[in-house]
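Record DUF2956 domain-containing protein, 105 aa.
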Amino acid sequence: MTSPISNEKKHQALQMAKATQKPGQTKEHTKLIAQGIEKGISEYKKQQKTKARTRDKQRKQSLKIKSSDNQPEEISPMKPTPAPYLPWSLLVLSWMSFIVYIYYF
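=>
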């Protein structure tokens, strides 16, 4: 899927190639260099488009996460307790208090 190269890109590439032209370099070599520069410009623009797309996707995903965080969650009656160690700690505390009561009273 190659996109046609615009005249502006061709003109810019030719200017760059002429700016870096060495003495004794033929026009054919300069044209080949200009074509390479055109391809480089095209590749650079493709890379920038893909980077922009990925940044946009990440931005949308972060906005989606933030919007879901702001909405209150429904509280279901079957949710487990937030602290599963609480019943065990109460059991241990009650047994310790029972043992202390027996020994000291």
